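Input sequence (352 aa), recorded before submission:
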Amino acid sequence: MSSDPFVPEVPPASPEIEERLRALPKVELHQHVDGSIPAEVTWELMRLYRLHPADSLPEMRRFLEIQEGEEGTLLAYLDKMHYPLWVTQFYENVSKVVEEICVASVAAGVSTLELRYAPLIHTYAGLTPRQSIRAALSGMNRARRKHPRMKLGLIVIAMRQHGPHIAKLLARQALAEAQHLHERTGVVGFDIAGPERGNPPRLFRSAYEMARLGRLGLTAHAGEDAPVDYVWQAVDELGVDRVGHACAAVQDPELVKRLARDRIAVEVCLSSNYHTGAVKRGERHPLETFLEAGVPVVLCCDNSTVSRTDAVRESLLAAAQVGVEAVEGIHRAADAHTFIKPETALGTRQDD
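Predicted structure, token format:
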């Protein structure tokens, strides 16, 4: 529990409730690699390459975690993922950080984990997009050998600012590593992320059609830093199965009804939404509105390092709004919305 005014405060919960939520098997379907690398791991790698911009881990955390006065805008939040990119340009480093994120998730009681990864921003030192994807999958397979009961899958992200043509390239690369075509953990979904405004979902329709034909699950960041129309486009023109954040959706009752009717799940990230300004400080999060309307929701961390959070903390934040029984119900129902389908993978051989 943090006393920092810019970190959403978790209201006090009884030890019994905290332990109950800690022991609860959790489903995490919206967590980014770049914003979730444990600070100690980034510090270790930056020191190895002598690239650390600070003299100590506590100082380094200021570059990796949201600070007072920085909350309220999406771009300031995204800037916290700048420094990890200095060292996650090499196959083994990408594999290492992904493995560490998976292991940290296990410690928070996560049993189903989908990680989001933008392969193109990890190719600046010479990796190809496919090698970049394989590096992340290697880390997931290492983690799975340590925790064989955990369900793991990778969602490939196309960054909006790179444009629709690059998105189509990445959709093809994602299909080459699709879980249902391999004997190991693989790519299970496709996403667009990055600056929303000026990059409407409809522009990426061709990439999504390619991913859909390749049997990938479809999700999109929409309505986090853009108007409600962007959520409509994600639903109507991209045909998504889930929407990331979708905070703007509550401005349109018809859209909320549509999400509920078609069972399109909203990936809710409470801490992150307050940090980026998607939900203003002091306002009640749309989570309760979604639940009352029958919209499926999944509680997610988004960027556990940037937001100084984990699956337990997000569950406690949600429980303070909607009650512990509702949170337990959310996690029990969430597995129905995962893109991970282990039964579709070929064989059982485990490799990188």
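Checked by second reader. The beta strands are 26-32, 110-117, 151-159, 187-193, 217-222, 242-245, 265-268, 297-299.
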